[in-house]
Each structure stands twice: as structure tokens, then as C-alpha cells.
TrEMBL record:
Keywords: Glycosidase, Hydrolase
Pfam families membership: Glyco_hydro_36C (PF16874), Glyco_hydro_36N (PF16875), Melibiase (PF02065)
Reactions that this protein is recorded to catalyse: Hydrolysis of terminal, non-reducing alpha-D-galactose residues in alpha-D-galactosides, including galactose oligosaccharides, galactomannans and galactolipids
Top EC class for this record: hydrolase
Stretch forming the signal peptide: none
CDD domains given in the database record: GH36 (cd14791)
Family to which this protein belongs: Belongs to the glycosyl hydrolase.
The keyword Hydrolase is assigned to this record: yes
Domain Glycosyl hydrolase family 36 N-terminal residue range list: 24-248
SUPFAM superfamilies linked: (Trans)glycosidases
Domain Glycosyl hydrolase family 36 C-terminal: 608-694
Tagged with keyword Membrane: no
Protein name: Alpha-galactosidase
Length: 708
């Protein structure tokens, strides 16, 4: 095989690249060991009539210049010139993690550097960089990362959403034009998660081939899946630049966000496992050995009504029910009595805390809990001392009015005075108080992102990263949660600087089932903030028993969101029960392999499980979302277990109305395995499964399987 071919291997996926005369992904799929130069030559396709006379190979950065009619990888110009560059590889550098391919266009005076890494979990990560080698500025409209997909990848699953309804999956067939997703909200967004899955027809959790991608970027993005007229298809992802946003001076370089991608030949579960292992080993490795502490967050308990003596009582009660980290939410600074005012005034509200935060912190610490606090540094209310002193600190186009969002505006983080002010205030907060954790919020979409008149989403996003990087360096022991009106900023790039996501402002367990499932395709459970709220949900006003609320929060990074002082003794007991259950299985939940099981009645039910790495233990949750479609709900086939082992099955938690004596509203008798001590082989459990009980809608149950 000639030296221009690079073969990258992981435990269950391979990649073959061509590096010269341009970078091209030749193969991405199952491991392949037996091939030679002729195999590579054999990739040369037929040339149909009445088209260009040669085959136009599809490079990692497709070019208009060679006769590629799809969206090019790069679009830009030098005052109207150099708009159709053609790059030729000059240098290929191999290293342990992957390959760097440097390609130049000496006429356009541009350099394109493509970096491709491949880890043992089968996750490919790639980014492109463009350097302007010319003396005059080069304007970049678009710079993307492109990966080819096979013709059999015909079905797409993407994620849409909104506030309190994040990560809703939808599916479509990809024909002809394909699919285009644009996020212009200025943050990762609830609306379009920057990730999707393309696969063979009707791929499921266990079946089918899938190619999953995630663009790690917290600003605007564009992702398209396109089908060319020769049937070839590709996925192209990029940070979306506003008009005039990017201009490169001589020797300046623009780099795309990282695109993370993985292939699975066994449906979505294996894809998720690739992503989860990759995140655990590469993105959140630093928190691997510390159990994720159970939270109590004060927001839904007291909102802006802060009284330190009362808050201390809350902490005492929290400790009693098993909480391990106590977080004071919004309302502790400036004159923050409601959400109309004080954002930006990061000084303690002495009316509410006359003796400072210290008494509360010492009390929390004396109970053995960690202490956390809420901030929203990127924002400002017009009703604030900060705005009265510095009206020009806004991210804005001063000639126009812009709408507020939650009565607030965005600060221009590229303004050094703003950046320094925030760094100074956060350093005061974290340096002078014994704080273990901050909940970093960002509660509005960005309109008129103007920095000195120029568009600034990219600069704003990179400045945020820089601020977080500095804080992480200065205060390495402080963990940060990324929150943005719930799940508006969830992506791998922000996760490199944070340890947890606030998944959604909805603590409605029924909504959460879908939201958390959507998020689980890309993120392991230990970064997914999941709280048990009160019986009456504060966002949807639905009511759920503790059983559904508890089992829904159990599987993430668990917390509670309530006023434990007001909770009745019965409620406290219930919260405590699920906290203890979570702690019992936390190690398994946060280090095992998560699975979403394919069920026979997917309209009405979903099931989630976690199997230990050694396949000795597992837990499974069945969540009955709606009335079962049929009188019976079918069988639950468990995956991830060893066929040759026998497993004991033990029901751990059921809806209150179901027990062996009284078997519920819609059942006369429970299935055998729920009444009798049962041992079955992994093979049986996978191929035949367990007959499901008939559960009431909006209830859940938990059982465990243990190898004998
Ligand atoms: C946002 C967050 C909430 C809470 C409030 C406080 O809505 O998502 O969890 O912190 O802000 O104002």
C-alpha cells in the first residue's frame, strides 16, 4: 500500500484516509484488516455520461475549484478574489493520536490544516484550520468539517427543543436535498442540539448501522446532511458566522470547532457507549474517582426570598435526608429581589446577608456538606449599578434598540474592562469564600451581538471559554455546572470547562424521561443534573408520586429541588429513600454501560438500564409514560448481559399501588418473575426476556439483576 494511505484503528471501528494530493476519508466503519493497494484503487467508481469527464473525489474539505457542486468546505474571499481555492497536501504528520495534513494553495495564499484523531473507543475527532498567508485580509464566510456517509445511511435522527422541553428527538428520511439545521441563538441552544445520528433504515437502540456526530461548540452552528445527485451523501458541520464576522489578517488562523463522530454496527446503544467512554476518558477524566455528590438546590424552595437563618435550617434538613452538596441559587447579590434587577452587581446583598455568606457556609460545612452558589456572569439588567455606571458594556449595536430577554442584556466579554471586572468579582467570590461549586447560568438568547460594531458571537463564545479556563486554573477545586435556562448550553466544549449540566428547568418527571433519554445519546449519566422536585411540578403543574420522580432523577447526577423545612415528615422520608437508593447504585450508574432498551410498546413506555463493566450487575427501570397500547405491554429483553451467566432478578421499587397482594388497577396478577424468586440466564433474558407488568400511566419500577 502506498504511503499516502493511513489506517486508523480502534477496538471496534476503523478509518482509512488518503492524505495526498488532498485529505479524503476513504472508509469509516467495521474493522477491516485484509486490504492492499488494489483495494484502494478499486474504490474508483464508474463515470456516468453527461457529467464531468472524471470522477470528482470527495475531499475532507470539498472544493468548488475541482468540480464539486455541493456546499464547499470553505467559502471566503480576498475582496472578491481568491474565492475558489484549491489545496494540495504539502505535509503529513503522523503521531500517536492521529494525523495532521497541511495543504496549501500558493495562488490564493491560504493554508488548510486538517487534524484527525481517533481514539480506542471508536470516536473520531476532526477540525480544520485556515491560515491566511497573504498580505491582505481574507474574509471567511464559512469553514466547515465534512465527513462522507455511505449511501445506505438514509435515516436521520436529530434533536429539537425549547425551554423545559430539551432534547426531543425527531426522525426523517434523507433524500435529494437532505437536511439543514441552523442555530442562530448565540448559545448552544435548546432549539437544535449540535449533534445528530444518521443510519440505515429504521435503526434502533440495538439494531442497525449508525453514524453519530456532535459539533462541540457553544455558539451558533450549521449542520447539514446532503445528498448529491450521484447518490453520495455527507455531513457537514460548522460554527455559523454572521456576515463579516471573520476576517483573517496575515498569518492569522481560524479553527473550526471539533467535530466528534462515531460509527456503530449495533444501533444507538453502542454509539452512545463509544461517546460515553470517550467523554469519561478524555473530557471529564479529572472527576473520575470522586462520587458525584447529591445536591439540594434552593431555587424552587425559596426563589429570591433569602434569609440566612432559614437557609441554614434548610441545610440542616438537607443533611438529614442525605444531601451532600447544598447550593444557594439566584437572589444573594445586589438588590436581586426579582428577575428585573441587579444582574451584574456581584456584591453580596447586605440587607439579606448582614453577616456575610460565612455563617451559612460554615454551617453547611459543619454538616459535612459541600457548598455551592449561583452566578450568571455574562448578563446585566438595566436596573443595576453596573449598567448605571457602564451602559456601554453591553453587547449591542448602539444605533438600534434590542429586545431584552428575561429583562436582561448580554455583556460584551471581548471588552477587556468587562472581562477584567467579571474575573475580579468571581475571584472575590471564589477566593474569599469556601465555595466548592458554582452553578453558572446564562438565561437569554443573543440579539445584536455587536462588539465595536462588528458581529461577535464567535468572540463572545471564545471569551467565555477563556474566562472559565482562567477560573479553572485559579480555583481547580471548584466544580462548575453549565446551566442556560436549563439545558440551553450542553455540548462537549463547555464540558471541558465544567463538570455538570443543568439538563432542564423542568423537574416534571414525565417530561424529564424524554429529555434525559435524548441527552443520553451523547452524554454519560454522571454529567446529567437530575433533581427530584415537589409533588406539584413548578413548570407544568402536573402532579406525580414520588415513585416516578425518584426513579427518574435516580439515573443522573441526582439532586433535590425543594424546601426541605416545609416538606412533611412523610415527604422527607420519601426523598431520603430515593437518595439512599441512588447512593447505593451510584458507582454502577456513573461507571457502567448505559442502555436504552428497545420495547414492544414504544409509544407508551421506555426502559433504561445500566450494566456494570464486568457484566455482573445491572439495574433496569421501566417507565410507563402513557396508558399501554394493548392489554399487555409485551416482553422486556435485557441486553448487555453475559449469555453464559445466570442472573438473579430482584424488584427494588414499584409504584405504591402495586405489590404482590394488590397488583394494581389494571392487573389481576403480577407476572411470575415479580412474585417468585427468579434466576434466568443472560441468554434467556436477552432473547426471550421478561413479560412486563401492566403499569398505570406515569409510574415507574426498578429491578436489579445480579450474576450468581
Ligand atoms: C434559570 C435556571 C434556574 C434558576 C434560575 C434563577 O432559569 O435555569 O435553574 O437558577 O435561572 O434565576
Amino acid at each position: 500500500m502506498n504511503a499516502t494511505t493511513v489506517h486508523l484503528q480502534s477496538k471496534d471501528t476503523d478509518i482509512i484516509l488518503r492524505t495526498k494530493p488532498y485529505a479524503q476519508l476513504l472508509y469509516w466503519g467495521k474493522p477491516i484488516q485484509h486490504f492492499n493497494q488494489q483495494s484502494i484503487d478499486c474504490l474508483q467508481p464508474a463515470i456516468p455520461n453527461s457529467r464531468l469527464d472524471i470522477d470528482i473525489p470527495f475531499a475532507l474539505c470539498p472544493e468548488e475549484a475541482v468540480g464539486n457542486f455541493s456546499t464547499p468546505g470553505l467559502e471566503g474571499h480576498r475582496s472578491g478574489q481568491d474565492w475558489s481555492p484549491h489545496f494540495t497536501t504539502e505535509q503529513v504528520i503522523r503521531d500517536e493520536r492521529g494525523v495532521t495534513i497541511i495543504a496549501d494553495d500558493i495562488h490564493a495564499q491560504l493554508r488548510l490544516t486538517s487534524r484527525i484523531e481517533f481514539d480506542n473507543n471508536g470516536v473520531l475527532q476532526t477540525q480544520n484550520s485556515l491560515t491566511n498567508l497573504g498580505e491582505t485580509p481574507y474574509q471567511v464566510n464559512r469553514l466547515s468539517v465534512t465527513l462522507p456517509l455511505p449511501e445506505r445511511a438514509i435515516e436521520l435522527m436529530a434533536f429539537n427543543g425549547r425551554w423545559i422541553k430539551e432534547f426531543q428527538s425527531h426522525r426523517t428520511h434523507i433524500d435529494h436535498c437532505g437536511y439543514l439545521q441552523e442555530n442562530r441563538r448565540g448559545r448552544t441552544s435548546h432549539e437544535y442540539f449540535p449533534g445528530m445520528v444518521i443510519g440505515t433504515n429504521a435503526f434502533s437502540e440495538q439494531q442497525g448501522e449508525v453514524w453519530g456526530i456532535h459539533l462541540a461548540w457553544s455558539g451558533n452552528h450549521r449542520i447539514q446532511v446532503a445528498v448529491k445527485s450521484n447518490g453520495k451523501r455527507f455531513i457537514q458541520a460548522e460554527a455559523l458566522y454572521l456576515a463579516g464576522e471573520i476576517q483573517l489578517a496575515q498569518n492569522e488562523t481560524l479553527t473550526t470547532p471539533w467535530l466528534y463522530a462515531t460509527y456503530s454496527d449495533q444501533g444507538l446503544n453502542k454509539m452512545s457507549q463509544h461517546f460515553h467512554h470517550f467523554v469519561r476518558q478524555n473530557i471529564i477524566a479529572q472527576m473520575k474517582n470522586k462520587p458525584r455528590p447529591v445536591h439540594l438546590n434552593t431555587w424552587e424552595g425559596i426563589y429570591f426570598d433569602h434569609d440566612p437563618n432559614y437557609i441554614m435550617q434548610m441545610a440542616t434538613k438537607a443533611a438529614e435526608i442525605g444531601v451532600e452538596r447544598f447550593i444557594i441559587d439566584d437572589g444573594w447579590f445586589g438588590t436581586r429581589d426579582d428577575d428585573w434587577q441587579a444582574l451584574g452587581d456581584w456584591y453580596l446583598d447586605r440587607r439579606k446577608y448582614p453577616h456575610g455568606l460565612e455563617p451559612v457556609i460554615s454551617h453547611v460545612k459543619s454538616l459535612g456538606l459541600e457548598f455551592g452558589i449561583w452566578v450568571e456572569p455574562e448578563m446585566i439588567n438595566k436596573n443595576s449599578d453596573l449598567y448605571r455606571a457602564h451602559p456601554d458594556w453591553l453587547l449591542q449595536l448602539p444605533a438600534y434598540n434590542q429586545p431584552s430577554g428575561r429583562h436582561q442584556y448580554v455583556l460584551d466579554l471581548q471588552n477587556p474592562a468587562v472581562f477584567d471586572y467579571l474575573l475580579e468579582r468571581l475571584t472575590w467570590l471564589l477566593g474569599n469564600h469556601d465555595i466548592d461549586y458554582i452553578k453558572w447560568d446564562m438565561n437569554r438568547e443573543i440579539v445584536q451581538a455587536g462588539h465595536q460594531g462588528s458581529p461577535a458571537i464567535v468572540g463572545q463564545t471564545e471569551s467565555l471559554y477563556r474566562l472559565l479556563d482562567i477560573l479553572q486554573q485559579k480555583f481547580p477545586h471548584v466544580e462548575i455546572e453549565s446551566c442556560s435556562s436549563g439545558g440551553g448550553r450542553i455540548d462537549y466544549e463547555i464540558l471541558k470547562r465544567t463538570q455538570r449540566f443543568w439538563t432542564s428547568d423542568s423537574n416534571d418527571a414525565l417530561e424529564r424521561q424524554t429529555i434525559q433519554r435524548g441527552m443520553s445519546y451523547f452524554f454519560p449519566p454522571e454529567v446529567m443534573g437530575a433533581h427530584i422536585g415537589g409533588k406539584l411540578c413548578h413548570t407544568t403543574y402536573r402532579q406525580h408520586d414520588i415513585n416516578l420522580r425518584g426513579l427518574t432523577a435516580l439515573v443522573g447526577h441526582m439532586g433535590v429541588e425543594l424546601d426541605p423545612v416545609k416538606a412533611s415528615p412523610q415527604e422527607q422520608k420519601e426523598f431520603s429513600h430515593y437518595i439512599q437508593l441512588h447512593k447505593k447504585f451510584r458507582e454502577l450508574l456513573h461507571h457502567g454501560n448505559s442502555l436504552r432498551l428497545d420495547v414492544d410498546d414504544p409509544q407508551a413506555m421506555q426502559s433504561y438500564g445500566v450494566v456494570s463493566q464486568d457484566q455482573q450487575h445491572a439495574i433496569f427501570i421501566i417507565a410507563q409514560l402513557k396508558m399501554p397500547t394493548y392489554a399487555l405491554s409485551g416482553d422486556l429483553r435485557l441486553t448487555g448481559l453475559r449469555h453464559d451467566l445466570n442472573y438473579r432478578i430482584e424488584v427494588l421499587d414499584m409504584p405504591e399501588n402495586i405489590n404482590p397482594v394488590n397488583s394494581g388497577h389494571t392487573m389481576k396478577q403480577l407476572p411470575y418473575w415479580m412474585m417468585e424468586s427468579t434466576t434466568l440466564s443472560g441468554e434467556w433474558l436477552q432473547n426471550i426476556g421478561l413479560p412486563l407488568p401492566v403499569l398505570d400511566p406515569e409510574t415507574a419500577m426498578l429491578f436489579k439483576v445480579s450474576a450468581l
